[in-house]
Amino acid sequence: MKTCDIRGAGPDKSTPNDPGKGRPGDGGGSGGNDTAIATRTSPKTKKPSMYKVLLLNDDYTPMEFVVRILEAIFHKTGEDATRIMLHVHQKGVGVCGVYTYDIAETKVAQVVDIARRSEHPLQCTMEKE
Question: Closest by alpha carbon to 96, among 64, 61, 65, 56?
């Protein structure tokens, strides 16, 4: 059986390391390389907008209920939940956490749902950070 070496075979006999020489008969000097390098830029991923979930003070919702909401929905420790509840009570509004839009929206809905089922007027909203 015979082996065949195909390196260097083909119509382009120019050497890649010699850009001044083109193919024979092409006028020479132009390099003869009409190749372009196509680059694909990957799109930069933008960080999602973040939203603050806010609790609003009212005169009717028990403080203990607010603490339980903060522990159950926002996974706050008892100490953090009490601190946030007191801030809401004294300042009228307080931040429960900062989340992406979908998560913030879900947490607001959970708070409102539990408050309504428990017959408390607790209000919860979200705003872009």
Answer: 56
First-to-last C-alpha distance (Å) of the chain? 75
Q: What is the CA radius of gyration of the chain?
A: 34
Residue among 96, 30, 100 nearest 69 (CA): 96
Amino acid at 39: T
Q: Could you give all domains of the chain from N- to C-terminal order, each with its CATH number?
A: 62-128 (3.30.1390.10)
Distance CA 57, CA 85 (A): 9
Mutual orientation of helices 63-74 and 101-117 as an angle, nearest 10°? 140
Residues 13-29: tens digit of each pLDDT: 555 555 555 555 555 55
Token match 């000097």: residue? Answer: 29
